[in-house]
Design a protein that fits this description.
Blueprint: E1 4-6, E2 9-16, E3 20-27, E4 35-37, E5 41-49, E6 51-56, E7 59-64, E8 68-71, E9 77-81, E10 87-95, E11 104-107
Antiparallel strand pairs: 1-2, 2-3, 3-10, 4-11, 5-8, 5-10, 6-7, 6-9
Length: 113
């Protein structure tokens, strides 16, 4: 299982099928994903370890191991690692398309927006 590295951490694809895609995502301490949305997929995030804050359409949701967050299609979302250890979560994508080009970045700490 190879990990695709990013400036904020990385991810590994665990399953890539016609009906869903599953990733294991790691966010490094003090880092956060871009604020983004998707037109063709919804996501379900299950936090495995670490602590952070999910922003979902402007609402800030504290998360830790065992917490799940549902992200509807078109919802602006991101996760920030607010702790001292990696945040790890499982992302399940559902919809009709799972390509990385369905990411619309609204804000980004790494100049990708």
């Amino acid at each position: 299982m190879g990990e695709d590295r990013r400036p904020w951490g990385g991810y590994a694809v665990l399953y890539d099928g016609a009906d869903c895609k599953v990733k294991r995502i790691t966010v490094l301490p003090g880092k956060r994903l871009s604020l983004q949305r998707h037109q063709r997929r919804a996501e379900h995030w299950f936090i495995v370890s670490g602590t952070g804050v999910v922003t979902l359409d402007g609402e800030r949701i504290p998360v830790a191991a065992g917490v799940a967050v549902d992200i509807p299609k078109s919802a602006a979302h991101r996760i920030a690692n607010t702790g001292a250890v990696d945040v790890v979560f499982i992302e399940t994508q559902t919809g009709d398309y799972f390509g990385e080009d369905d990411i619309e970045r609204l804000e980004d700490d790494f100049g990708r927006a």
